[in-house]
Fold this protein.
Amino acid sequence: MSIIEMKVPTIGESITEVTLSQWLKKDGEIVRTDEPICEFESDKATLEFPAEATGKLIYVASEGDDLAIGALVAKIDTSVTVSDAKSAPAPEVEASKTESKPAATTSTNDAAGYTSGHPSPAAAKILREGGVSAEGVQGSGKDGRITKEDALQAVQTKPAAQQSEATHTPLATTTLSNSIGGIRNTRVEKMSRMRKTIAARLVSAKNGTAMLTTFNEVDLTAVNELRKKYQEKFVAKYGVKLGYMSLFAKACAKALMEMPDVNAMIDDGNIVYHDYVDISFAISTPNGLVVPPMQNVESLGYHEIENKLKELADKARNGKLTLDEMKGGTFTITNGGVFGSLLSTPIINEPQSAILGMHAIKERPVAVDGKVEIRPMMYLALSYDHRIIDGSTSVTFLVRVKELLEDPMTLMMDL
């Protein structure tokens, strides 16, 4: 018997432990080299763990286990081959997936037979999460391989009866009844590693910084007129809409370059100043809030910001952000307005020193040149670390952002 030990690999210099969130293959199932066998949840992202050899999978760890880097996850018995599983399938092996495929050999015909109807790793994950079996899905890739597009199409067209079960399984459920006779259910679910990390960092920011929040409001009449006037031409040229976020990002980048204290951070008693602006954008995902940074925003065009934002948001919501894409950032923007928030006090994203909170746009009566007019108004909030940013600096920064947005041509002309 030849046994290969599968251990938790080194994921990143700051990650010392992961959680085995779910097995992708059954105990005793035949797996092939580079085929994902389970998923790890780290502090920052969810990662697939591929098999290092072909053979029979033997569980060592269980779903929900917290595993240190280098801990044993599973074993692979390489003496058991695909052909062995065909002739004498183990009860726990999912026969429909292993027996329907021809034995893996070095011949071209057999290799093509295996590829036919077999999903790529990305497609397999989409099918699994969508509750759709790979059997019956027509592959359009090379030699009939099921591609990501095939999987998305299969999930979108699946019958309602095949809807997958909830991904979070309650650890305990209690049913109580009250005097009225109504049901009062409670359930306990294990907190995800990402949620634990988010909680720890928010508490650290509250306890470890001298955090204050200053407020202002911005009249978006000029921004709305600009977007309305040039939107069609912008879309025709760049293939993406001119949104609020790119305008806010450029306004913040310009103000940050003018006021480097707001773009700085404290590191072991020293102040680190940056001659560039890397803005982190808060993105809500099913697993929690992530803040991937966009580098050198001060040098990017509006269409580049919009395209990059769309790319980051898609990756975040599909769990595809890499650890490198999560690192860094000198300033953060969060937009609670998309959820209807009128006003909030955002928490600093350490080790940064400031975060801008955008909110819902509401038409309100305001005084303009001695007359009352209805204008699209948004409250802005800047939370900042008073250890490094003075109150006057924070107010000046927010006023500068307001001025740039209320007269966007000065922003466009870099005035």
In short: The chain has two domains: 3-159, 193-412. The chain is about 30% helix and 25% strand. Residues 13 and 87 are 45 Å apart (CA to CA). The radius of gyration is 26 Å.
